Amino acid sequence: MFSFQVFDHPMSRGFQNRFSTQYRCYSVSMLAGPNDRSDVEKGGKIIMPPSALDQLSRLNITYPMLFKLTNKNSDRMTHCGVLEFVADEGICYLPHWMMQNLLLEEGGLVQVESVNLMVATYSKFQPQSPDFLDITNPKAVLENALRNFACLTTGDVIAINYNEKIYELRVMETKPDKAVSIIECDMNVDFDAPLGYKEPERRPHHQEEPTEEEGDPSSYADMDTGFRAFTGSGNRLDGKTKGIEPSPAPLGPSDIKRGIPNYEFKVGRITFIRNSKPLPRRIIDDDDAMNRFIAFSGQGQSLRKKGRKP
């Protein structure tokens, strides 16, 4: 009798553990059923037929299940996860933004292969519209939206829904690989300037401060003095002119005194300047006497003289 030994070649084992097949893809809006499946559009997972689950269960694949989608006609590829296995046989349903990245039309063929991806540590996104800057906390919004995604691919344009508005973001960079898994990972997120964004022009705020120059006092006479109170002339009821002072003479150039500017002025602070007058000599002497006063420093008087016996 002859015995044959079958060698388990590693290449054949790797080939058996790999899932690879073709499906006709449609958008989620074509999925038949009473339930609204708009939640599929908000993430990066697809719906596959039950036969795919049966075939995947027979293979020794790693979890979570991640797949590589390839459009051989346009040589475009992306990566995704799987949400459910409820599609019709030979059909898979993709989010609309994923079909746009693959340049697929309704009913187009897509190659689906199982892959293993490294866990993400860093990713950089570029919003495709300046409207993304209107969001108060964009990192928190993106973190909440990425919970519906399984992986990211460099070059993809993903779509997230926030406040009933769709924002598109291009994946500019991912580390440690061009395709990474974002399931249960600690990933640093960074943003690039939005597409079409222009920074506002900054005008210099250097204003030249006016220099105080000594001018000719005769030029002050040409200044508009404006309203001057109590400069008119009065009239008596009896018609007499007694006690009425004549109108004041116009001011001459020497009568106008230029004020002293406050060089310590600061915006937002009001300073009241008082004209200090010298105090009288008597008040100064009284202040000196008060300063020299020492309490309980006087001598007391006794009613009974010392040394006299009763």
Automatic annotation (TrEMBL):
GO terms for cellular component: UFD1-NPL4 complex; VCP-NPL4-UFD1 AAA ATPase complex. PANTHER family: UBIQUITIN FUSION DEGRADATON PROTEIN 1, UBIQUITIN RECOGNITION FACTOR IN ER-ASSOCIATED DEGRADATION PROTEIN 1. Belongs to the UFD1 family. One of its GO terms (molecular function) is polyubiquitin modification-dependent protein binding. Transmembrane segments: none annotated. Keywords: Ubl conjugation pathway. It comes from the Eukaryota. This is Ubiquitin recognition factor in ER-associated degradation protein 1. Residues 198-209 have a biased composition (Basic and acidic residues). Residues 19-117, 120-194 form the Ubiquitin fusion degradation protein UFD1 N-terminal subdomain domain. The lineage of its organism: Eukaryota, Metazoa, Chordata, Craniata, Vertebrata. One of its GO terms (biological process) is cellular response to xenobiotic stimulus. Pfam families: UFD1_N1 (PF03152), UFD1_N2 (PF24842). InterPro entries: Ufd1-like, Ufd1-like_Nn, UFD1_N1, UFD1_N2. Pathway: Protein degradation; proteasomal ubiquitin-dependent pathway. It comes from Seriola lalandi dorsalis. The keyword Zinc-finger does not apply. Residues 194-256 are annotated as: Disordered. Essential component of the ubiquitin-dependent proteolytic pathway which degrades ubiquitin fusion proteins. The ternary complex containing UFD1, VCP and NPLOC4 binds ubiquitinated proteins and is necessary for the export of misfolded proteins from the ER to the cytoplasm, where they are degraded by the proteasome. The NPLOC4-UFD1-VCP complex regulates spindle disassembly at the end of mitosis and is necessary for the formation of a closed nuclear envelope. It may be involved in the development of some ectoderm-derived structures.
